Amino acid sequence: MDASVGITPATPLDLIIIGGGINGAGIAADAAGRGLKVLICEQQDFASATSSASSKLIHGGLRYLEHYEFRLVKEALQEREVLLKIAPHLVKPMRFVLPHQPHLRPAWMIRTGLFLYDHLGKRESLEASRGVRFAEDSALDEKIKQGFEYADCWVDDARLVITNIQSAFQHGANIRNRTSFVEAFRENHHWKVVLRDEQTQQLSTHYTKGIVNAAGPWVANILQQNIHMQSPYKVRLIKGSHIVVPKLHNGSEAYILQNNDQRIVFVIPYLHDFSLIGTTDIEYKGDPRRVKISATEIDYLINITNNHFKQHISEADIVYSYAGVRPLCDDESSAPSAITRDYTLTIDHQDGHTPLLSVFGGKITTYRKLAEAAMEKLIPYFANMEKPWTQHTPLPGGDLSEGVEGLQQQLEQALPWLEPKIIDRYVHSYGHCCYQFLEGIQGPEMMGPYFGAGLYGCEVDYLVKHEWVNQIDDILWRRTKVGLLINRKQYNHLAYYLEKQHNLVS
Known about the structure:
The protein is α+β, with helices and mostly antiparallel strands. It has helices spanning 22-33, 70-86, 107-120, 157-170, 219-226, 295-306, 367-378, 403-414, 420-430, 435-438, 457-466, 472-479, 488-502, and strands spanning 13-18, 38-41, 57-58, 91-99, 130-133, 146-155, 174-176, 179-187, 190-197, 203-213, 235-246, 254-258, 264-270, 274-278, 282-284, 320-329, 343-350, 353-361. Strands 3, 4, 5, 6, 11, 12, 13, 14, 15 and 16 form a ten-stranded mixed beta sheet that branches. Strands 1, 2, 7, 8, 9, 10, 17 and 18 form an eight-stranded mixed beta sheet that branches. It is globular. 46% of the residues are buried. The model is unreliable at 1-5 (pLDDT under 50). Its EC number is 1.1.5.3. Keywords: FAD, Flavoprotein, Oxidoreductase.
């Protein structure tokens, strides 16, 4: 995983991919698996921006039907089934309860929407929608008597990104975390690209036949400031914020709450003991790296939650919050919630050479189809590109012939001293890949130092060696989510270990 020397004009890369979010990672994996020589660079950590700040759902987008986004919804619904098959350790089915509020949307409208939701995509493993009545023991406010229930899926968003990066690496891609794209020029039917290692500040020059600009919120900036060309589209940054509170209900189902502004908010079971509440939709004009939740957004999420649940929350209950920006292709919609979540791909070339493909918009659910569409646009420039392959090939760790529950049972039998909650996290974070750090371990003393919240040295060592970890937050908030659970003393213990054992200083 060490940085290689610059690629010469005589041995150029096929593609340099800018951006280590879900779209860049998905394109890198797809391209590398088709036999292309790929380098992917990310200025911070993989999934450190939008792709770790989502609502963590693989869903068709029920509300997108109101904006007639039938193509997008159909594609997203179909992708739910694909991702359940190729990443069963990361993507799991979840039932969603929609309390009925007659003054917001009539029942016939919701039934129609759910009928389309059930039938637009090929539904194989997920159950159909149905009407429900709420009993006295419901977690919802007593005034809410009935509603609807339908199926979608939950995903660990940041781990979906890193798993695609692992797939790209396994197919020969050059992986560059914390590496900035400085500039690029066309030169003799190649791109001459300058990258900067953000840890050493060292510059390196590379030659490539093509570039993919998947920089998310920075896609237009990259075009204008680093490649020195006009962006074909404007990007509208829409802020979405979430709060995490102690769990509001004991069930495994999520809730989708309607609000008077016609938006919806999810309340989703999170990390066993919490509820994840979000998201908001607000136009954002600042630096995407500095985005954070506002007091107005906190009040908004608290109020809609308290309007629906018996158990009320206040700002004092918030244990964590996060915000991200969705880089949406500007379709001149007046309301942020009405802007399309569909993706747009553009390509620029010079006399049939040096393609530059830019990605505008997109959502985590359709990342794989977006990658396929990107490769389809690049076929004319790469005659030796192999055929599509990602639809039926499990992501690393996802080849689970015994199923998720079977893997869980195997690990519980092999590691009886570990809490089932820890094993559950291993299974749903790594799938079979967890054997890379658990193989041969016969007792707790072999797990390495314990840092709290189920985090042991053997896992930390694996993350540093195999998942491009450079800083403590890479581990705590993206490769795992245990940053929500550890205290300051445990944090300092981990930081000391990373410095002494792996020479990593945050």
